[in-house]
Amino acid sequence: MNRTIMEKIDSFSDLRDRARHKARASRIPRLQVVYAAIAAEADRQVRNLRRATRELEEEAL
Asked: Which residues have C-beta within 8 Å of that of residue 22, sequence separation ≥ 6?
């Protein structure tokens, strides 16, 4: 797997985890929703990058 892609996946994973933590820790409902949306988008990005990487690796075979 390309190092740059791995770094992006790690970055989005960290963002997702921090946003989930802040969503749980926040006492303000609107902020909970915002942080949950950020976590969901970061999770989608991680899945998309992993899928694209898997497809590239399959093409290389």
From this structure: 31, 35
> What is the rounded (10 degree) CA torsion for 61, 6, 50, 21?
160
**pLDDT, tens only, 9-30:** 999 999 999 999 999 999 999 9
Q: Based on the number of CB atoms within 10 Å of its own CB, is 42 exposed (0-12), middle (13-18) or buried (19 or more)?
A: buried
Mean pLDDT over each residue of the chain, to the nearest integer: 94
Under a CB-based contact definition with an 8 Å cutoff, are residues 12 and 49 in contact?
yes
Per DSSP, the residues of 12-53 read HHHHHHHHHHHHHH---HHHHHHHHHHHHHHHHHHHHHHHHH
